[in-house]
Q: What sequence folds into this?
């Protein structure tokens, strides 16, 4: 498909799903990057208590809390 035809379909609001190859798609700045952090035992215990209360993993809790704080800081 020519770019011109693609643009016309897009601008007309047509479904473009069949015309796109998502096999190599990626979200910029969303790739995971491993970070190691050492916490005192009491912090880990409190994280575990909160994560258990919320029914999520410790890792998920830490990710959510850090993301919330970073959004507030902007």
A:
């Amino acid at each position: 498909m020519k770019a011109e035809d693609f643009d016309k379909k897009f601008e007309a609001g047509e479904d473009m799903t069949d015309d796109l190859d998502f096999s190599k798609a990626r979200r910029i700045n969303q790739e995971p990057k491993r970070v190691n952090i050492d916490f005192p035992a009491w912090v880990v215990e409190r994280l575990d208590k909160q994560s258990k209360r919320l029914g999520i993993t410790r890792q998920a809790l830490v990710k959510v809390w850090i993301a919330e704080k970073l959004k507030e800081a902007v």
